Amino acid sequence: MCRRASGSSFATNASVRKENFRILSGHELLTEYESSPGNRRTFCSKCGSPLFGTAADIPSARRVRLGALDNVDGAKAVAHIWTGSKSDWFKITDGLEQFEEEPPDSYCAPG
Question: pTM, whole model, 2 decimals?
Answer without folding.
Answer: 0.75
